[in-house]
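Researcher: Good morning. I'm working through a list of sequences from a screen, and I'd like to move beyond sequence-only analysis. For each chain I'm collecting a predicted structure so we can compare shapes side by side. This is the next one on the list. No need for commentary yet; just the structure.
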Amino acid sequence: MWIANFFTLFLIFLPAFLANASPVVAKNIPIIRELSWPIHERFFGKNKTVRGLITGILVGMITGLLLYFCRHIFVRFLTNYTTIYNLYHDWKQAMLVGGTIAAGALVGDMGKSFVKRRLGKKPGSMFQPWDGIDYMIGAIIFMLPWYTVSIWGAIFLLIIGPLLSLMMNTIAYSIGWKECWY
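Model: Good morning. Structure tokens for this chain:
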């Protein structure tokens, strides 16, 4: 039963996971590449761009829509899917929830970058243990109007988030989309 609960939680936060990975993909798409100006270089560094923010939120909204369209399938396989069914019960709310949770993930990441700049760390440098945890904290906070994560759920997200982030970053590095593996 706990596996189904964690899988359901993974699905609820899927827009955050995909939004976190989308800026790396977006910078390699020629048309979108033009939106590469920094949001605020002094506060967040040169790597936090308008392109990443826009594409991340759009990916979150699209993921919310996909969860809306797939909700009937998930109800058959997950007995505790009622929560997701309620969160993504209407296409407008699905886009709102997906976009909000994606924005939370990106704001969490920008918050970490802001702290890194204050500590004198360079953009793109490793900042453990916050790399991977930052976006999940932001997503959890932004999700509060719709869903409150249990302690065990938060622990799960704070473990799986960095693992997925590391895995995706390693893949992006190996195909030449990132300059560092973390």
